[in-house]
Amino acid sequence: MPIFEKTAAVQQQIDQFLADTEASVSALGEYADFVQTTELQRIRREFAQNITDFYRDDRKLNIGIIGQVKAGKSTFLNTLLFEGKEILPTARTPKTAALTKIEYSEENRICVEYYSPEEWHILEDYAKAESDDNEYTVARETMKLVAENGIDPAPYLHMGKEEIPFPSLDALMEQLNEYVGENGKFTPLVKNVTLYMDKPELKEISIVDTPGMNDAIVSRSERTREFIGRCDVVFFLSRGSQFIDENDMKMIQNQIPQKGVARMVLICSRFDETLQDELKKCGSLRATMQKQIPQLTEYAKRKFGSGPIFISSMIEAMIGKQEVDYSRNEAHVFKRLNRFGDLTQDMMQEIGNIAAVRAVFHEVVSSKDETLQKKASGFMPSVKKEWNAAVKDLRSETERRKLLLETGDKELLQKQKSAMESQISGIRASLETVLGELRNALEQTKGESMSRLRDSCRENARLQERTGTETRVRTRKYTTGFWFWKKTHYEDHTSTSTYTYLAATDALENIRTFGYDACTGIETAFRKAVDIKTTKRKLMQTILDNFDSSDENFDINHFRLLAETTLNRIEFPVIKLDVAPFIQKISGQFSGEVRDSGDRAKLQILLSETMDQLFEDVSAQFTKTVSAFRASLDDMQTHFSTELLEGIQQEFELLCGQVEDKEQAVAQYEKVLAMLSKATML
Questions:
Q1: Are residues 457 and 519 in the same domain?
Q2: Full-model pTM
Q3: Do residues 182 and 87 lie in contact, with contact meaning Cβ atoms separated by under 8 Å?
Q4: Structural domain total, the chain
Q5: Non-local CB neighbours of 603 within 8 Å, separated by 6+ positions
């Protein structure tokens, strides 16, 4: 039976809201040229869906894992649920990441949902377009991945859904990777995946690992929004090195429908990265933690309203391991965090801190009924608040258009239109200045980054000599007495000597370290050069400087939305560097301890040459990426002014059509305003 029975009073409230909102939408629908009801319809539709979902018989506690790409969501879940095993792989790109649900079942199986043939046709059409808009770029990338994987999509599209059983976690890791993994053969074809597991702790709950919502297929983005909207509890992961940045706030405000979330837990993930960045300044790991935790906690409270739980899934996975058992990334992190030799097991427990998350997770599950009761009691107040806010926005827009129509004739409107179009020329010039500053900052940051990478290359091209000890045991023969009663015995003599050598593994680790530093350094350079918050402020100032903001017809919110939409087009590049061929050059010739002086010289020369080649590859990739990024900025500039013109064109064409019969149009606007007044919920 349902978790909560709907009382007669609750049912009456729900029915009344649906009836009243249907009447308002229907009445306003007769005035489509004067008011748009799309947002009102969405609010009503999602409310009805959420009510139906909440009171269904098999309703579970929905727990969402939310965060930007590289926030560490998959690693977090692997640590929380699977003791650190890499069950949930990372997706190939943010654009092909599929939503993954994890639920209980007595039968272990993966349920895969593919795109439909109709959705795939849309993607194919988008892929043929030359536009650089996000949905078309996604479509081209998806088609490219399918071609690279050498599969015919048709059978899977017509299949719709597929269930694949798995006997063990090892089998699950291999199979799941094919459908949602970075190199998964079927990843670009998959919309959603549900992972059913025979784990008793999953009973009565459903965990949702969410991707972003920037999908070319509207239905897949809507499916993600639908799942997020039905989450009762959200664990929001924000990467420590970019803690609660502009994109995090957008996700919190835009992608997480607060009306559906009864509780939100903030996680500062990948905390080890923050410590690495600050360690050198503080002088010890303990001092770094004592500085960073209070600072980030206070910042989170200002931005988010509550403090975070600090975790590092990677450090958690390293606890209890010997150094020789660390993975490449783990060894690199250990080396950087242990700069002062104080990364003890106890300290690793503090930094990993998954125990704190587990405690909260278990508390969330155990208080399921209280959480859902809180959500149930908030349905009506929250939906009325959302509805009234949408109605208020429609009233403001309608009053603005009515006033503009009343105070102008066709000739005046044309003059206003021409004036605004000419002002956009000023925006173009100012925008060129803003983006020119970005380009200059990018070039400057590129130069600084290349200088740091060159230093890193030199540092990692040198091998430090190691000292080893060698113990030798020699057996000597001793004889005593005369020939006829001679006795013989043997004694062992031990001697210890020291020697110097170069370790081939150090050379390999130096290559990996430089590769890691290069990737993270380049990505950081882009984010430093293009400060989203500062750029947004400059774009808004550009608009204010070119329009009369004191004019009551000037709607800053419209232009703010346009500025945000434009900035959302900025996609920071993800740098991937394959160091395997460079490692092979070393490992193919050297291994273990290299003692011979001639061989040591050869190893050092080979490492130096290999690092030079790797640096050249990094430089070429960096230059290419900067050029592509500059081109995207140029495209963004074009879109910004073009969309301003298109919006103004549509606005004035509508008003010019209505001014032909001004009195009737004004009367229609007054009727709409009266309807909107009645549409407000008490």
A1: yes
A2: 0.59
A3: no
A4: 2
A5: 463, 502, 504, 507, 586, 589, 590, 594
